[in-house]
Amino acid sequence: MRYLLRLGYSFARPHVRLCHQSVYRSNANERSLAVVLGEKKLEISTGRLAKFADGSAVVKLGDTSVMVTAVSKTKPSPSQFMPLVVDYRQKAAAAGRIPTNYLRRELGTTDHEILTSRLIDRSIRPLFPPGYFYDTQVLCNLLAVDGVNDPDVLAINAASAALALSDIPWNGPIGAVRVGLVDGELVINPTRLEMTSSTLNLIVAGAPSSQVVMIEASAENVLQQDFCHAVKVGVRHTQQIILTIQQMMREQKITKRTPVKVFTAPKDMVEHVRQLASERIYAVFTDYTHDKISRDEAINKVRLETEEILKEKFPQAEPFEIIESFNVASKEIFRNLVLNEYKRCDGRGLTALRNISCDVDLFKPLHGSALFQRGQTQVLCSVTFDSLESSVKADIITTALSGIKDKNFMLHYEFPPYATNEIGKMGGINRRELGHGALAEKALRPVIPKDFPFTIRVTSEVLESNGSSSMASACGGSLALMDAGVPISSAVAGVAVGLISKANPETPTEIQDYRLLTDILGIEDYLGDMDFKLAGTNKGITALQADVKIPGLPLRLVMEAIQQGTVAKREILGIMNKCLQKPRETQKENGPVVENVRVPASKRARFVGPGGYNLRKLQAQTGVTINQVDEETFSVFAPTPEAMHEAHKFISEICKDDQEQELEFGAIYTATITEIRDIGVMVKLYPNMSAVLLHNSQLDHKRIKHPSALGLDVGQKIQVKYFGRDPTDGRMRISRKVLHSPAASIIKTMSETQSISMSSSNSNRPSSDL
């Protein structure tokens, strides 16, 4: 305040009004437009929040609002790729919750956040101009979530608007919608409730001119024609979002930066590489005896020799220029081989599959196992069963945002470094592994029976990798599930379709010519334009993921890729059926067992034990898991039949029949005090009986605070009257104070009880005064 006064600021009322006027002028730049999608209105606004960012936009649907900011450095990065980072974070406050961790704040990242970040990244990355190597960060901030509309699709649209309305070079905008299939009708951006009854969860991101840049879908065996129709409807609605963002760009007169092109190969140097090494590179790519390792070694040998010559020819050239020159030339030769000669580097036809082999029941101790080999891609899958209580429990924020509480089927994908003959760090999980595992899980989930009594975990370990390991995981996972005896509704197979395209010289965003490749190799993925993964059964599609590296795909090409993938999928299923045609009718001998144990109310307290002691002891000694189903039934899960046998012996010992059944209602017994407590005494009516509590209120007619007031001590024998068991909790009801009343009673010992008939005892049975 003093500093402001020294500068001549006054805080009189007129200046307060001027301050308000300046705030109003800053909000005057805010611009908001709405687009109607089906029956819902999507609002896009900018200019009010996060104005220091290069671009900022807020997208609202219902009462769910997502803000996305985009910032890009003005100096190029030393890396020779597009250094784009997308971070989507779930905010507890947006859902009206407080995090449950000990710090009560957001910590780390969840699987859902990582998968959504990948979804946004794959949608916007293809539209950055070639050679744009500037660090760029896109942050997605949830402002408010109504629990009805999912924020992930809104985040894609907000990222598109933030980049389009900034000066960052980007060939957008794009639009994204979710398409559901409810009761045979397509629904655009369905609510969370509508998605519970939807057989399709399709997210499609479209570019101008009805181009497709990203598809992510899971489906419950949706027919090919219905799926294709859903894609077309989704793309049509994305165009409305694109037109809205383009209108905002025109109104704000957006001017993009002109970045300095770095890491580009000089034309004369590329031409020199063509003259020096074209024939040798072509010879390597047409030598069908090569496998992945030998081909890479042969190309690397040509590279090193060529680079040495280039260094002598161009002594002033930068190292990256020499490297990039060879990369440009070799990529050009590889792509022309496919486009012009219809040849692939392993000798296959464009639609041919690699050699496939399958094997199941590899290791006897496993509940289910399978080995799937496709070319040089090898995946080992195993199935493990556990109790339903072992299902994945979602955190409260994910539950509030997506409605997912728990799931009893999961697939975990592992990609160790030796799979590509490399050395790397082990432990933890990266975004790629998480994304590939999630895709394979989506492919298999629709065929898992919903009432299966176990939690199922499929682990997929990639032992060798030369392309399409995620789809191999879907194939191997399907075989492992059938080997484990899971009654899946149908076998599932997956395949990856690639693309080699040629752009129109006059209109670079248009494709002049292209070739679709079935079952792509790693090098075809790396040097190609698309990785189009499709999985499903003989009936329909269960999962689809399209990763595109060019600014967009025309719809006709997408439809053709789906058709080509469907044909290959059926061919793979035919090969898998020769190995194992249907699920085994029974589980393996060492498989888990679930049984329900009925415990009468009279024995429930003994079964559970003090404070649950007996249950904990049973679980620790035998490895079983016990959960109460209802008042008298407990569900026992055992990982093996031997564990269930041990549990049966333990339970029988705890609940074995004893002399308690001979206790007569209303009879008097001599009990032995085993323990003195503040609230009463623990007594036994016979030697092998579990001690029961005789409360202070039942010791004497006088009100006492401690049993010592009556001179009671451990080992002392006292007489008590038996009144059966409480019908609600099964506790034994006994009393000492009623014996001090004038009512007639019969004093019995255990030996006397055994010799007295039930008829005589019934004739002397008094009424209970408890």
From TrEMBL:
Compartment annotation: Cytoplasm; Mitochondrion intermembrane space; Mitochondrion matrix
Region (Disordered): 750-770
Record family assignment: Belongs to the polyribonucleotide nucleotidyltransferase family.
A matching Pfam family: KH_1
GO biological process: mitochondrial mRNA catabolic process; mitochondrial RNA 3'-end processing; mRNA processing
Mitochondrion is among the record's keywords: yes
GO molecular function per UniProt: 3'-5'-RNA exonuclease activity; polyribonucleotide nucleotidyltransferase activity; RNA binding
Ranges of residues in domain S1 motif: 666-737
The entry's keywords: Acetylation, Cytoplasm, Exonuclease, Hydrolase, Membrane, Mitochondrion, mRNA processing, Nuclease, Nucleotidyltransferase, Phosphoprotein, RNA-binding, Transferase, Transit peptide, Transport
Name of the molecule in the record: Polyribonucleotide nucleotidyltransferase 1, mitochondrial
Main EC class the enzyme belongs to: transferase
Entry superkingdom: Eukaryota
Xref: PROSITE patterns: KH_TYPE_1, S1
Cellular component GO terms, alphabetical: cytosol; mitochondrial intermembrane space; mitochondrial matrix
Keyword check for Acetylation: yes
Bias (Low complexity) ranges: 751-770
Topology class, membrane: Peripheral membrane protein
Principal location listed in the UniProt entry: cytoplasm
InterPro entries the UniProt entry points to: ExoRNase_PH_dom1, ExoRNase_PH_dom2, ExoRNase_PH_dom2_sf, KH_dom, KH_dom_type_1, KH_dom_type_1_sf, NA-bd_OB-fold, PNPase
E.C. number: 2.7.7.8
Subunit text: Homotrimer; in free form. Homooligomer. Component of the mitochondrial degradosome (mtEXO) complex which is a heteropentamer containing 2 copies of SUPV3L1 and 3 copies of PNPT1. As part of the mitochondrial degradosome complex, interacts with GRSF1 in an RNA-dependent manner; the interaction enhances the activity of the complex. Interacts with TCL1A; the interaction has no effect on PNPT1 exonuclease activity.
Organism field: Xyrichtys novacula (Pearly razorfish)
